[in-house]
Amino acid sequence: MSNDINSEAREIAEKVEAFVRDKIFPFEKDPRCEDHGPTDELVQEMRALAREAGVLTPHIREDGSHLTHLETALVLRKSGLSPLGPLAVNTFAPDEGNMYLLGKCASPEQKERFLKPLVEGVARSAFFMTEPASENGAGSDPMMMKTTAKPDGNHWVINGRKTFITGAKGAKVGIVMAKSDDGACMFLVDLPDPAIKIERVLDTIDSSMPGSHSVVQIDNLRVPADQMLGESGEGFKYAQVRLAPARLTHCMRWLGCCDRAQEIATDYACRRQAFGKPLVDHEGVGFMLAENQIDLKQSELMIDWCASVLDTGALGTTESSMAKVAVSEALFRIADKCVQVMGGTGLSQDTVVEQVFREVRAFRVYDGPTEVHKWSLAKKIKKSNPV
């Protein structure tokens, strides 16, 4: 499959890797990397450097066309060598998935107003779908959506409550999912809006996403009818357009982070002496690094296979579910072993390994927990094998 990646994509990936290693690694110790994610000041400073280096939004060409999913996999993996890399080059979630969705489904007017500033890296976005479990709202089961959309003249009025909305604080573009009498809908909104109130920013295990994850109250939000994405009732269809590739691009970025963690742990194990020899020469340590190499390669192959399926034009929900499960679980094993190899140093913030461990642990939950994807796959297995 690697033979299907053309020279253009390889050159882009090489430029992205060089940029992230040279310009972005030093920012990992910047005090503007806060508990609720890097500040927007830091994000824009890094993006200015990426713009100057010609690597901003590298997976989207100037004419608006995209690299293939397989080519994107290589570029995003290189951007992920630092948790800050995807932010710097504008390949991070939720913006990357939102750009993909708008590129596929938005009208020309919507693209000019909402997509263009995202591609240019001057604005961030948020995807408002998940709802509080305490209110039996939409979480892993979007069919439980409680947020409503009611027509009122040439507007829609939206009411509801959302949670774990990544990047809501500081976002300029919002995609809001709500339920009309026809079914699920998506609306494009300018942010901030007084009708969308951030109740609180959650304290979570991860810290790589600007604005972190918010609980949001939507109170009589009025949205012009021409800001609906597509038609009323088609929201779930559009959600699948976004979610299948987005699950995979998460895998791509975090694979890059685990490449980096493995580099650091390997260097540590080869330099650190214990009981008369380098740590790597102790089988208990060397075997962990060997197992990591196997998991890294298997993750790469799973991502490339799934990307190739998406490139055929298939929706790829089954394949992306399998990739999400296999890769997120493998990456957690890798990050865990890197921490273990490094002992106390791996638990400290002296290196980025500690953060990679936290971020990858969170990845096993967002965009669908492992168990939900397995359950979905089991249902499809049963359907294809009726008794």
UniProtKB/TrEMBL annotation:
CDD domains: ACAD
Names of required cofactors: FAD
An annotated Gene Ontology molecular function: flavin adenine dinucleotide binding
Positions of the Acyl-CoA dehydrogenase/oxidase C-terminal domain: 233-380
Keywords: FAD, Flavoprotein, Oxidoreductase
Residues annotated as domain Acyl-CoA dehydrogenase/oxidase N-terminal: 7-121
Secretion signal, residue range per the UniProt entry: none
Location of the Acyl-CoA oxidase/dehydrogenase middle domain: 133-204
Keyword Oxidoreductase: yes
InterPro entries (alphabetical): Acyl-CoA_dehydrogenase (IPR050741), Acyl-CoA_Oxase/DH_mid-dom (IPR006091), Acyl-CoA_Oxase/DH_mid-dom_sf (IPR046373), AcylCo_DH-like_C (IPR036250), AcylCo_DH/oxidase_C (IPR009075), AcylCoA_DH/ox_N (IPR013786), AcylCoA_DH/ox_N_sf (IPR037069), AcylCoA_DH/oxidase_NM_dom_sf (IPR009100)
Cellular component annotations (GO), alphabetically ordered: cytoplasm
Record-level GO BP terms: fatty acid beta-oxidation using acyl-CoA dehydrogenase
Subunit record text: Homodimer.
Family recorded in the similarity comment: Belongs to the acyl-CoA dehydrogenase family.
Protein name per Swiss-Prot or TrEMBL: Acyl-CoA dehydrogenase
